[in-house]
Automatic annotation (TrEMBL):
Domain Thioesterase span(s) in chain numbering: 48-124
InterPro entries (UniProt xref): HotDog_dom_sf, PAAI_dom, Thioestr_dom
Top-level lineage group: Bacteria
NCBIfam families assigned: unchar_dom_1
Keywords noted in UniProt: Hydrolase
Signal peptide: none
One Gene Ontology cellular component annotation held by this UniProt entry: cytosol
Gene Ontology molecular-function annotations: 1,4-dihydroxy-2-naphthoyl-CoA thioesterase activity
Pfam families per UniProt: 4HBT (PF03061)
Name the record gives this protein: Hotdog fold thioesterase
SUPFAM superfamilies (UniProt xref): Thioesterase/thiol ester dehydrase-isomerase
Amino acid sequence: MADVTPELMNKFSEGTFTDLLGLKFTALSADGATAEWVVTPQQHQPAGITNGGVYCTVIETLASVSAGVWLGDRGSVVGVNNNTDFLRAVREGKLTGVATPIHRGRSQQLWQVVITDEQDRTVARGQVRLQNLSPQN
């Protein structure tokens, strides 16, 4: 995964859950990722605001992809904990998620993801702990 570009990641994501959300990577490196999507009524909970599961999905996706790019050919990653805080209700508009590393170790990684709206207000934030797995022989 070390050579994955945002365009290639968007291609890999076709037909997946994140594609269904409309999530598009705009930046991707071993030091983080950025992606954006437009909130639609299909992403709402019955109260008419974005379902928290959407934020959890985006946070898990950005952390996992970033962690995988950093780990590269040394293995793969799996999420072992996702802790997401919902800070501001959103009904519509474009949202942006940015993943940054907190800790990248031999066996685990910890990534933070912040989701902002078009006014650069934080609407959700989360952190994901990932287990580094050795390549299968």
